[in-house]
Amino acid sequence: MSSLNEPRWLDPDEMAAWRGFVTASNLLNRRLERQLKEDSGLSHQQYEILVHLSAAPGDSLRMTELADKLVTSKSGLTYQVTQLERMGLVSRRSCPSDVRGVFAELTDQGREVLRQAAPGHVALVRELLIDVLTRDQLAVLAEGLGEVSARLRLDETP
Amino acid sequence: MSSLNEPRWLDPDEMAAWRGFVTASNLLNRRLERQLKEDSGLSHQQYEILVHLSAAPGDSLRMTELADKLVTSKSGLTYQVTQLERMGLVSRRSCPSDVRGVFAELTDQGREVLRQAAPGHVALVRELLIDVLTRDQLAVLAEGLGEVSARLRLDETP
DNA sequence: ACACCTTTGTTCGAATTTGAACAACAGGAG
DNA sequence: CTCCTGTTGTTCAAATTCGAACAAAGGTGT
User: What residues are paired with A98 via a beta bridge?
Assistant: First the structure.
């Protein structure tokens, strides 16, 4: 037999995919971070918080739910929401049905800042990622990484 | 005309690709971070440093070159190399041809720790990403994200 | 040799992130 | 109702990250 305890290393194609994924992710994040900060004074994380809130019914989400969507820690979210609250872009509201619960809600100013920040951000995402890929590549990426995400979500909860 | 100043927003397919990319990246990083830390006491970043060094001729790289490969800041690398040096996994060596230059070099112990950490890490990357995708999806991902990375590298230098 | 501009790696302070510990509460079985 | 278990959001200390500023060299053209 060829290898019983030997791990299955990545072949060149697999390695290329993995390295490409990691590198693209890092480079992209760096760029978006810089652009958002300079252009709107927001970090990528803060921008994403505003986006998720604006997409939610009532422009508000429970802290835990928001943390899940952002894929971040609860404590990390607490910190960022506090920052956004100081900037006046988000406000906290207690939950009627659960005394422990806290809603993060988009303020009018938050909505306005997001509206102003979005075009530049989307344009860059387009320039650096979307428009670099063909329609087919985009479809494969969406389906493949969608499946990867879905599986990762699963064995995290149980 | 339909829209002159209106930005080109992402259509559903594009949005799915973008969200999938961001989410998969975050979830994956989280998992790998946890596994590496528990299994080998290394952060993902530290692991990557060891990997890049072991792949380099002479098991060593200049600080700047290494920072580029890792897609991180110079100061961030300085910090991590110092940590790895304290752990005895990496050592600094001055460059003969350039007094300012500093080589980060893998120590024997560093090579050993990497050898011990690699199988578990690769197995998880395989389980969570590689083996979830088909051969074709992998090829598309490698080529697409490779191109994305290449372009990002370009307009960063000038 | 000289001024001039770039590179190299580190240092510094500020901002962010994380996991563990925690207090307060919800929800259900008995 | 009461005990028990799981949730919720925050706090805390520690670790990490970044960018700007910096000192020390390289390299170039004159």
Answer: none
